[in-house]
Amino acid sequence: DPSDASVTTLPYKPPSPPWDTCVYNSCYCEENIWKLCEYIKSHDQYPLKECYAAFIFNERKMIPIWKQQARPGDGSVIWEI
């Protein structure tokens, strides 16, 4: 019962480290994801079976990504993976 005073809700803690402490390697997105997964695994905050990393690709081995620093204007960047 949500109105029960004995129910305690723990504050949400994101599974990732604060942005300014993340390990980042420019141009190596796979390495960055690996480091993030490694951080999540080593901090044992959430069950690892509840965490997923997805790599998206297609037959042409290219994907458009928006909101990248390398983009021209408001356009997308096509990365060849």
Number of domains: 1
- What structural class do the secondary elements suggest? alpha+beta
Averaged pLDDT, please?
80
Write down how many β-strands occur, each being a DSSP E stretch of 2 or more residues. 2
Taken as a percent bin, the fraction of beta residues is 5-15%
- State the end-to-end distance: 50 Å
User: Largest sheet, if any?
Assistant: 2 strands, antiparallel
Number of helical regions = 1
H/E order of the elements? HEE
Provide the helix percentage.
10-25%
Trace the largest sheet across and list its strands. Answer: 1-2
Spans with pLDDT under 50 lasting ≥5 residues? none
Shape: elongated
Radius of gyration based on Cα positions: 18 Å
Domain Protein N-terminal glutamine amidohydrolase alpha beta roll: 24-80
Keywords: Hydrolase
Subunit structure: Monomer.
Family: Belongs to the NTAQ1 family.
Key terms:
hydrolase; 10% strand; 81 residues; Protein N-terminal glutamine amidohydrolase; protein-N-terminal asparagine amidohydrolase activity; 2 strands; elongated; two-stranded antiparallel sheet; alpha+beta; N_Gln_amidohydro_ab_roll_sf; NTAQ1; 1 helix
Would you write up a description of this structure?
The structure is a single chain. The chain has 81 residues and is of the alpha+beta class. It has one domain (20-80). 19% of the residues lie in helices and 10% in strands. The protein has one helix spanning 29-43, and strands at residues 62-65, 77-80. It has a two-stranded antiparallel sheet with strand order 1-2. The mean pLDDT is 80.
